[in-house]
Amino acid sequence: MFSSNPFAELSKVLAPETMQTFVVVMILLVALGTLFDIMHKGSAKYFFANWNKARKSGRREFACGEMMSLAGQTVVHDVLTSGEFCNPKRRMAHLLTMYGFLLYAITTAIMVFWYPTRDTATPSILPFLWHLGALMVCIGGYWFWFFIRADVSAEGQSPFRVMHADLFVLSLLASTTLALIWSYLQYHNSSWTNAALVVYLLATTVLFASVPWSKFSHMFFKPAAAFQKRVAKADGSLDMLPVAADRSDPADRDRHSMELLKDASMNMGLGIKREAPRHY
After folding, report:
1. Phi first, then psi: what are they for 14, rounded to 5°?
2. Does 117 have pLDDT greater than 80?
3. CB within 8 A of 269, min separation 6: which ones?
4. According to the model, what pLDDT value does residue 268 have?
5. Cα(144)–Cα(89) distance, rounded to whole angstroms?
6. DSSP state, residue 171
7. Which position among 116, 167, 200, 265 has the lowest Cβ density within 10 Å, counted as fewest Cβ atoms?
8. Distance, CA of 194 to CA of 133 (rounded, Å)
9. What's the whole-model pTM score?
10. Which helix (H) or strand (E) holds 265?
């Protein structure tokens, strides 16, 4: 099963052009949905307005090389390794889901467009990566859903409690889970194969068509927000937030808001860090 291209097998009953058209439509739905989300919520307008406002209040200017360095740090730390998550379990679940989805989506496109029939031999690595990607999404997604979500792990809510914000996670899990079920049934020539295919396509359509109402588009917004945060910290604007107090500075220690702490020890213990950061 892991070495079999399910889309090549599907070409016996469904024309390759139909499969390719479906993939193109899904890509267009993501693009149009993201644009609609940006225009409807004014995300881009707010981002650039906030960026310009913060840059004007910055305490220093950046050279091009330093800006590129901040962009590189954002890509490596915030995008590729999800370094914003303090909870290691949450971070691992996110990485499994993210890289699993990338494997699943990219290999789907490659097999559908370059190896859509049995006439062209599919490199065995492609279906293996497709199944592996779907499995990674399932492992990371179900792990998050049942054990890591803040309302489940920290607030004691039922893992079966569903909210509007869960649309993306649930549709992604449904798509990858049904993909594996469909591939398994197809490999074993089950009479349920076509039924599984129909449900799989429906779940996939919901995943990509629900972009304006789900968190799908966050994968495009989060890197921009993370980069803006790094720039605001580096140029001193701090995104309009007050400068953090430095109690080693006599001027800071004598401020009215610091009177209760001015004579306190610089090492005041773990504080909130005594509790594991499992809420986010």
Report:
1. -135, 125
2. yes
3. none
4. 64
5. 9
6. H
7. 265
8. 22
9. 0.81
10. none
* Chain mean position to CA 67: 24
DSSP label at 254? T
58 close to 236: Cβ distance less than 8 angstroms: yes
* Digit-coded pLDDT (tens) for 217-243: 777 777 877 887 887 777 766 665 666
Write down the number of H helices and E strands in the chain: 11, 0
pLDDT tens column, 11-43? 988 899 999 999 999 999 999 988 887 777 766
Alpha helices in 82-124 (DSSP H): 88-114
Burial 172-195 (b: 16+ CB within 10 A, else e): bbbbbbbbbbbbebbeeeeeebee
Q: Could you give the CA distance from residue 123 to residue 33 in angstroms, rounded to a whole number?
A: 33
Cα–Cα distance for residue pair 200/206, rounded to 1 Å: 10
